[in-house]
């Protein structure tokens, strides 16, 4: 039997855990934070053994994380709790009405008539959910980010735990068009990336970043380094992509594409907070390392990437 793709296994694990009523009950309580497990066990009437087993499952699938002694939802957990579970509940409650709507698909109806039927059936509107698209693999996310960079008209705010050459080159193209561009690099993955910089950078890219840093902008206004909770970008203030990874091995789980100005404003505010707290001097070391590689032993050729 062919082995399932990791992303399928990851999504299956999410449904497996959240299908357990006790786990779901605990998960909802972590929205406000669980500071006292003894109190929570009494409140939920869940046995101590089952409580800790379900809590561990929630932690293992990256929905819950313990910070400063408090069990709270991760970024992925908040998205699941505040967006997807309510949408699933609405869909389930409207299942009979949705079946009727599906039956109308092959029937030619005036749009006004169709809307009146939908209104009469009281089918919930998922206008907010329609602004969200799930990206289920890393390569698709990279393609979407590159497309956003190439279409950007005003600004690109990038905060990433990855050093993807293709995305960086798209960022440089945007700068050439006059688009405001800033990058926050994740500190936790930077050291290993620097050790292997010769292998992951093409000659073309290395020359581009050195030229960019030397002539295009004041590097202090372009890049920062800081510990990132997750990778995300905001383009033109209203289109955001957020990537969630496994907290144990940093493998890709899922990404969300949001086309919403309100969400964009919130992520922009988060970005500005991270930017102000970021380290500029470490970013300089990154560029210096690239320059050393370029002037010394040549990086791998483009065809080897």
Please characterize this protein's 3D structure:
By secondary structure, the chain is of the alpha+beta class. It contains 14 helices and 9 strands. It has helices spanning 6-18, 21-29, 37-44, 48-60, 75-93, 95-103, 111-120, 138-151, 165-176, 190-195, 197-200, 203-216, 261-277, 280-295, and strands at 64-67, 70-73, 132-135, 155-160, 180-186, 223-226, 231-235, 239-245, 252-259. The strands form 2 sheets. A 7-stranded mixed beta sheet has the order 3-9-8-7-4-5-6, sandwiched between helices. A two-stranded antiparallel ribbon has the order 1-2. The longest helix has 19 residues, at 75-93. Mean pLDDT is 76; it is low at 125-129, 193-201 and 297-305.
CATH class of the largest domain: Alpha Beta
Q: Estimate nothing, just give the exact number of structural domains.
A: 3
Q: Any idea of the CATH topology of the largest domain?
A: Endonuclease, Chain A
**Helix/strand structural class:** alpha+beta
Instruction: Describe the largest sheet.
Output: 7 strands, mixed
Individual helix count? 14
CATH architecture of the largest domain: 2-Layer Sandwich
CATH superfamily of the largest domain: Endonuclease Chain A
Low-confidence stretches: 125-129, 193-201, 297-305
Oligomeric organization of the protein chains: single chain
Compute the average pLDDT. Answer: 76
Give the overall form. globular
First-to-last CA distance: 31 Å
DSSP, total strands: 9
- Provide the helix percentage: 40-55%
Concise description?
The protein has 305 residues and is α+β, with helices and mostly antiparallel strands. Helices cover 54% and strands 16% of the residues.
